[in-house]
Fold this sequence. Notes:
By secondary structure, this protein is mainly α. The chain has a single domain, classed as Rhodopsin 7-helix transmembrane proteins (Rhopdopsin 7-helix transmembrane proteins, Up-down Bundle), CATH 1.20.1070.10. The chain is 71% helix and 9% strand. It has helices spanning 2-27, 37-61, 94-133, 141-175, 183-190, 193-242, and strands at 62-67, 72-74, 80-82, 85-90, 246-248, 255-257. The strands form three sheets. It has a two-stranded antiparallel ribbon with strand order 1-4. A two-stranded antiparallel sheet has the order 2-3. Strands 5-6 form a two-stranded antiparallel sheet. Helix 1 (2-27) packs parallel to helix 3, helix 2 runs antiparallel to helix 3 and helix 4 runs antiparallel to helix 5. It starts with a helix and ends with a strand.
Amino acid sequence: xxxxxxxxxxxxxxxxxxxxxxxxxxxxxxxxxxxxxxxxxxxxxxxxxxxxxxxxxxxxxxxxxxxxxxxxxxxxxxxxxxxxxxxxxxxxxxxxxxxxxxxxxxxxxxxxxxxxxxxxxxxxxxxxxxxxxxxxxxxxxxxxxxxxxxxxxxxxxxxxxxxxxxxxxxxxxxxxxxxxxxxxxxxxxxxxxxxxxxxxxxxxxxxxxxxxxxxxxxxxxxxxxxxxxxxxxxxxxxxxxxxxxxxxxxxxxxxxxx
Length: 258
């Protein structure tokens, strides 16, 4: 179970890193250093180490607990056996568990979800602004908006039910409430949602990536065109200022008019 949790967190971090990469490409295309291979390897390695560090307390405290009193089993030879259920659980103290789960909720759910929403919102606003400033815009802003909303809402719809039982446990521990018996069943079903998200994410991201490529090409063309126009304007200003200036030949003291 700890390995599964680590994979879930690492997947969430990678989706956030993808959103950050697209945000930098669309909103800050001049900064090319962030798209270098060295930076990509550093970011992915850091996210993997971060996910491992967050799950280490659960790994080190994991233990197997037996549950008895679940009834008896009678085989064909009329032999009676007590049913014992073994479950892998964390052996953390209550205060430590509250702190660990709180960190996981903050760094593996709240922070990535907020950053993901922020990055894609800024991207859509930037592309809409770019569309308004261009007379003949070919940016597929409607498709980008639809796919971006689909990616964000699908991510949140799979992550929120997964983390709500964790938050529920924290609240019950902090205020001494009794945990509802149906909580375990709800937890089992909610753990399926991140895998459902991982199964369908590639479809949404493939469609979204194709539209982002079109938007990035058009934004880059606009940036190059503006820089070229600025260079031409600056050159004209320099030439106009140099008209009529008196220059002195460096090899003689004869004055020349430009």
